[in-house]
Amino acid sequence: MELSGKLCIVICALMSVSNGNDMLTLDKQEDFVLVGASPKYKCTVNQNANFLIGNPLKWEKRGRDGSKVVISVLANVEAGLATEYNVQLDTTDNAMSFTLSFKQGIKEDYDGHFACVLYNKSNTVLAEKAVDVHVIRTIQKTEFEIGDQKQTVSGEPALSIRLEEGTYKPICRTEGSNPAAVIKIYLGNTEEMGDPQVEVPDTSRTQPPIVYNVEKSATISLKPDDNDKILKCVAKVRDDDSMKTEISYKLEVFSIPPEISCNNITAMKGNKFVELTCTIKVPGITCTSGNIFWENGENGDRYDVDYNQNGLRVFCLKQVKGLVSTTLRIDAVTEANFKTDYFVVYVNKHSTTTRKQAILNQDYSGAASLQNVIFLMCSSLLASILL
């Protein structure tokens, strides 16, 4: 008997909750409103007036921090709140509606929930419905930067800037909006997807609503073909053009070609230690950056700095800031060396390649092996002395 009694209590409680939820309807569950707006929220009790005598309906304001303020009991607004709120009563035979409105318009601290709640005589909740009110705050600040350029003024004509060709990471930031702004970055007419935007609540703000600072970045490669393109950041709240900020740059993209000069060498077959030397002048160049090498024009072989194989050696020397010299040394000149084109190659930080040929001319004069003859004469003389 005791078990059946408990079971009855549980079933009755569930039926009460179910019936309670059916008692109330609310025309909105979520709303985004601007400060000063005058929305209305209609809560309908699907019962007659006699029911409400013992089961009053209350409108309550519930803050996101857990605070609660009773606005009205039935259609009677609480003392001290009559200048802010109004509750209008409308009746039919089987229902009564209580419409909440805002005499002074929506305020920032209204961000939260407005609930209509049915209580019984014991002040126990029979049913409740709530609308989640988001007080919109427009973007307070927008910032768009690329390289060492930064803009914070929205809506102005595109700012013209010069950038060297290469890879950049433009970053767009917004501050102070609720909900978080959605940021998009465009190069020309193409949206640069980049990294997902980061949304962070502004903890320095202590009053509702919670506002968000947002950051969006993308990696782009700029080339001279991108001249006159517009790079822009577009930020919107709730995809509403009336709550949009836009900052843009008009691009002039340039490249700095290296100045390469090479000495042309004339040699004879059999000459020792013939050197082809080139100088490269460009800001920021070093011998250790791995972007200087020599290339065999016949087979494409690459000879990096400090290469030392097959009778070839490569040296590099930094002369002054922004200037290096590099040398390809041929230990012993052969016929094949004259048939090969040798190039010095420089690849800049943006992967743009520049080549310059260092020419090895062949000397066809009669003293084809003068160096070797002198060597043999000296060897013979030394041998006779030793004997």
Entry keywords:
mainly beta, Immunoglobulin-like, six-stranded mixed sheet, five-stranded antiparallel sheet, 4 helices, disordered N terminus
Q: What can you see in these coordinates?
A:
- The structure is a single chain.
- The strands form eight sheets. Strands 2-10-9-4-5-6 form a six-stranded mixed beta sheet. Strands 12-11-15-19-18 form a five-stranded antiparallel beta sheet, with no helix packed on it. Strands 13-22-21-16-17 form a five-stranded mixed beta sheet, with no helix packed on it.
- The protein has 387 residues and is mainly beta.
- It has three domains: 2-136, Immunoglobulins (Immunoglobulin-like, Sandwich), CATH 2.60.40; 141-254, Immunoglobulins (Immunoglobulin-like, Sandwich); 259-362, Immunoglobulins (Immunoglobulin-like), CATH 2.60.40.10.
- 13% of the residues lie in helices and 50% in strands.
